[in-house]
Amino acid sequence: MEFQQKRNQTEGYIWLVTENGEKLKPVDDVGGGINDILSIANMIAFWCFNPNRPLMFWDEPTKHLSREYSEAAGNMIKTLIEEKGMQILMVTHDRVLAKSANNIIELE
């Protein structure tokens, strides 16, 4: 993560760094899946700073992940819910991810 001053404000940038030290900007240089992973990590990090937050809203958090990674994300989310008391209201079309939920409401 890198911070820069622009227009009298601090902006934060997340970079992926290769083994060669090359910086990749996730939005421009890699597939959408890594952006989903970084987004989930970011949401969890914010929750950790304020675990008394009653509820988090997530909209399609794994839309660019493969089935394998979506299942892994679902398992991680289920663990956070069960062990850390995190509460998530999530909208998803991903049936694999939906299996991580305690309650499912389907809309037609």
The main β sheet shows up as: 2 strands, antiparallel
What is Rg? Answer: 16 Å
Average per-residue pLDDT, rounded, comes to 83
General form:
globular
Residue stretches low in confidence (pLDDT < 50, at least 5 long) are none
Please count the beta strands (DSSP E, at least 2 residues each).
6
Q: Major sheet: order of its strands?
A: 1-2
Helix- and strand-based class? Answer: alpha+beta
Topology overview:
Layout: E1 2-6, E2 9-13, E3 16-17, E4 23-24, H1 26-29, H2 32-49, E5 56-59, H3 67-84, E6 88-91, H4 95-98
Parallel strand pairs: 5-6
Antiparallel strand pairs: 1-2, 3-4
Describe the structure.
- The protein has 108 residues and is α+β, with helices and mostly antiparallel strands.
- 41% of the residues lie in helices and 20% in strands.
- Strands 1-2 form a two-stranded antiparallel ribbon. A two-stranded antiparallel ribbon has the order 3-4.
- Strand 3 and strand 4 form a beta hairpin.
- The chain is globular, with a radius of gyration of 16 Å.
- The chain starts with a strand and ends in a 10-residue tail after the last helix.
List keywords for this structure.
two-stranded antiparallel ribbon; 108 residues; alpha+beta
What's a concise summary of this model?
This protein is α+β, with helices and mostly antiparallel strands and 108 residues long. 41% of the residues lie in helices and 20% in strands.
